Write a sequence for this structure.
């Protein structure tokens, strides 16, 4: 059995996250990240896949429907409860486990073809150990594929604003900290639940991959496809969904900028030793 688990900060947001993620993932995963993850993963039929930080397991289920033999794990027992409930409703043969991705000692060494982490490594305290463990359970030549919020625009190191240059308005980010790793509290959207995110520059992830014997084979920077909504006059709504951009010109300008600034990163790495 794994070492004694600490309680996950995500437990209190589990019902919210399960409702948001459903069977397709939250908006940016369905529309921005997952199409790239699936392209990078390629044909998964009959592959043995471990998904770390699987949340309510929607991506594990997607892979199982594509013919993979999947094990999904997460530190949040409440999120795994949702995954198990969905497995009971529509069985896909997925094994779900409550584990810390940094301690997977009960999972057999060299037993998976692919390990994935879909938008979770920036939420994992010990990413170095999690990557080492993912590599340990991979067979020689196996792949670790993961997505994260692009570290350059990690929510806590940027400030969004509209600025003027040569008489024209632009939307942009001022990045005021990048190279220093930092743990910071954030609110899981409208759930109101506070959790910790871990900012790490890209070089730190690459160092962890190298230390784990993983050689980067894919590096995809992803901009969002999201349309910016104009707030209606006097509009009430969920605060985090409401846009601050009130004119069509500002909305268009923000959309143009967002197509140039990668919000997400997908990295694939092959186990070479
Ligand atoms: C942003 S959510 C993403 C969940 C899921 N991959 C999805 O796409 O919906 C981050 C996940 O990382 C999980 N997590 C955080 N620390 C973890 C750890 N040490 N081991 C395993 N999972 C962890 C959280 O419980 C949460 O489910």
């Amino acid at each position: 059995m794994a070492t004694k688990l600490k309680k996950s900060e995500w437990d209190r947001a589990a019902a919210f996250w399960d409702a948001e993620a459903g069977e397709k993932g939250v908006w940016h995963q369905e529309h921005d990240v997952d199409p790239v993850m699936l392209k990078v993963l390629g044909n998964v039929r009959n592959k043995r896949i471990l998904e770390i930080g699987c949340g309510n397991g929607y991506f594990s289920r997607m892979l199982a429907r594509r013919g993979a033999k999947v094990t999904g794990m997460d530190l949040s027992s409440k999120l795994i409860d949702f995954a198990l409930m969905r497995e009971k409703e529509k069985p896909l043969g997925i094994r779900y486990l409550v584990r810390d991705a940094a301690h997977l000692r009960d999972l057999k060494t060299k037993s998976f073809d692919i390990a994935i982490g879909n938008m979770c490594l920036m939420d994992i305290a010990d990413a170095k150990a999690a990557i080492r463990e993912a590599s340990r359970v991979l067979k020689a030549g196996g792949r670790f594929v993961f997505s994260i919020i692009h570290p350059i625009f990690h929510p806590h190191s940027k400030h969004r604003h509209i600025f003027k240059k040569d008489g024209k308005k632009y939307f942009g980010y001022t990045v005021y900290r990048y190279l220093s790793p930092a743990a910071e509290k954030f609110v899981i959207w409208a759930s109101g639940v506070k959790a910790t995110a871990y900012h790490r520059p890209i070089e730190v992830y690459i160092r962890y991959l190298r230390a784990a014997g993983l050689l980067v084979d894919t590096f995809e920077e992803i901009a969002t496809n999201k349309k910016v909504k104009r707030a209606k006059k006097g509009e009430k709504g969920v605060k985090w969904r409401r846009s601050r951009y009130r004119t069509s010109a500002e909305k268009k300008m923000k959309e143009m900028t967002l197509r140039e600034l990668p919000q997400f990163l997908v990295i694939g790495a092959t186990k070479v030793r």
